[in-house]
Amino acid sequence: MALMKLPLPAEIAGVRLLESGRGGFINIKGFPLKKREKVASCSKGIYCSSQQGPPPAWPGRAVAEAGRRSWEGPKPISIVGSTGSIGTQTLDIVAENPDKFRIVALAAGSNVSLLADQVKTFKPQLVAVRNESLVVELKDALADAEHQLEIVAGEEGVIEVARHPDAVTVVTGIVGCAGLKPTVAAIEAGKDIALANKETLIAGGPFVLPLAHKHKVKILPADSEHSAIFQCIQGLPDGALRRIILTASGGAFRDWPVEKLKDVKVADALKHPNWNMGKKITVDSATLFNKGLEVIEAHYLYGAEYDDIEILIHPQSIIHSMVETQDSSVLAQLGWPDMRLPILYTMSWPERIYCSEITWPRLDLCKLGSLTFKAPDNVKYPSMNLAYAAGRAGGTMTGVLSAANEKAVEMFIDEKISYLEIFKAVELTCDAHRSELVEHPSLEEIIHYDLWARDYAAGLKLSSGLSPALV
């Protein structure tokens, strides 16, 4: 197993990188990896644990125990990342269902104006702003608030929101490894996790899964694909799952010829054909890195081997994903492309909440007409093969892949690198990490290598020919 070599732009249209989207990697630089299971210390003074490996996966299914309800009235919810795309859509759901949900705590990064409006509307008991320099501004904005609340700041403040004693479910909407510590805190406090932060499993899976088992919390996926899988496998007996089929819209460039990708502009990548999302995830949809990361999540969530997780281009985004059972039956979950639906299910589980046809249009297959599918193009989307390679490497490699991609996307949006250089930056960062890979990392190691990957990707100088050189 090896990370692949990406073709140069002049070659990209005519080179078949890999034999298959599920394996068949070109070997480079002496792969396979030698994984370190126990080390005494890391650079920068980070202590490296030698904990046992995680259970093979989260069970995938979630059983609602009798008598589990522990609250009166509307379900108490905390949101970490309330001003982002996931957070604002979660609050839309709460606003429409005040008899079902109430907000007890909110945390945001730096959007003080929107956070203040949210606090005035939903009246949480606790609010956190990650950017400590903005606390005074937030207090001024809330000077006329009609209820008493506590304001906390920094990472510790966000963690306090995540483990608020009254919260039953915590919606984790922070992008990147910044969401890892708050999610761990919520798990340790026994909160169910409405999982919208990919890094919780992609980077933190080897640490987070044993913790979730220990504290007996429910991990309820809030993204559309994993919510679809989660819904499809409820009630399946052990051993019934044969294959996972992740559907992908194909993003902004699904109809572009490969040779045109060298001319991609930021505005082009932000034109998603189906979904209304934040900039980072929209670019990830264009590169298909979002789907590669979901492959890794599916491995951790459902215990599927990488050879049994497939990606399928489905332009209409109506089938959100499918599972195949051992007897070859295929189960699918369908719905209009609306992120509120999977978020709602993570909040209401195990119940199903009635939705108004005005704000939640019902699916009309006759009106839709047809559903189409095609195999993904490995040349157009080299991200898939990088993700499968990182997944098979395991340990800290998956977190490095995710962090490098996040930094590369940031640089692309800031017009510091080209679209094709996103793939190259991620490949080079993962390649550089091979000798330092830790198979069973501690939380400190996971965070350490997340930061390392961002710094390394940012320090790459990528020429127009994609020939790398360290600055």
From TrEMBL:
Residues 77-205 form the 1-deoxy-D-xylulose 5-phosphate reductoisomerase N-terminal domain. Pathway: Isoprenoid biosynthesis; isopentenyl diphosphate biosynthesis via DXP pathway; isopentenyl diphosphate from 1-deoxy-D-xylulose 5-phosphate: step 1/6. The keyword Oxidoreductase applies. It holds the Pfam family DXPR_C. It catalyses: 2-C-methyl-D-erythritol 4-phosphate + NADP(+) = 1-deoxy-D-xylulose 5-phosphate + NADPH + H(+). Residues 334-455 form the DXP reductoisomerase C-terminal domain. Its cofactor is Mg(2+); Mn(2+). Keywords: Isoprene biosynthesis, Manganese, Metal-binding, NADP, Oxidoreductase. Residues 219-302 form the 1-deoxy-D-xylulose 5-phosphate reductoisomerase C-terminal domain. Its EC number is 1.1.1.267. SUPFAM superfamilies: 1-deoxy-D-xylulose-5-phosphate reductoisomerase, C-terminal domain, Glyceraldehyde-3-phosphate dehydrogenase-like, C-terminal domain, NAD(P)-binding Rossmann-fold domains. It comes from the Eukaryota. Belongs to the DXR family. This is 1-deoxy-D-xylulose-5-phosphate reductoisomerase. It comes from Platanthera guangdongensis. The lineage of its organism: Eukaryota, Viridiplantae, Streptophyta, Embryophyta, Tracheophyta.
